[in-house]
Task: structure prediction
Amino acid sequence: MAILVLSLSSPCNAQAKNFITETVRVYGSCGMCESTIEKAGSLKNVAQVDWDKDTQMATLSFDPAKTNQAEILKRIALSGYDSDQFLAPTSAYAKLPKCCQYERVQQSEIAISSELNIVTAVDRTTTAEDTQLVLPLKAVFDGYFSLKDALVQTNANTAAAAAEILLANINAVKMEQLSKEEHTVWMQVKEGLAANATRISATTDIEKQREDFITLSKAMYDLVKVSRTEAPTYYQYCPMANDGAGANWLSKESAVKNPYYGSMMLSCGRTIETIN
Result:
């Protein structure tokens, strides 16, 4: 029996040894807040959050090989609770029960943290040194545009390869580098982006690829709207695509090159929005 107990407890002890503990301030007001904060921040076998409503302090215990403080606090922010590092989206805060709506710190007083730097919540000038910080989704957008170009060329094999690269870029995104607006949208669209990229990479049927590209483009539009990019992005529309229901796509160039028809109707469509 003693041997059995030791064997069962060993994995837990090994896991605990890998965990580190940090204490941070998370704003809330009641026992219901405690339950929500702890549930939002915790991940089985990865992270555990213990929040004290009297001190407004959260103890984070986590495996640094699998997560970090920023990722935990961003999940908590998405559930409606501010910390000294991340503001909750206004919509998430508004959904909290009245008893949980704590007094919020002014946005200008709260810092946004990243693994590279700490910057205030107000706008700042972009420099060469922080390009990686403010453009953490560049590889995702570049992968999307490569896929779009392959569909313009009606090259299913190239499209499949581009989608595979896009999927790798999606999975490689460092969420701790995202702004709070990017992170909010990223958590909403990442699963769909990955699913569409996977389906496109798994087939050489150009029509099926184009069908999934419609949904992929909708999610990419939501993402580019909250992201900083190196140059303007053009949101374009073809009324003939999608069996006459119309479909959109994003482009780095203002000239229309239709990914849904390629050379058959290359210039069919128009730019309906320029995103800076």
The chain has two domains: 19-122, 133-275. Strands lie at 20-25, 47-52, 57-62, 111-113, 118-120, 233-238, 247-251, 270-275. The radius of gyration is 22 Å. The longest strand covers residues 20-25.
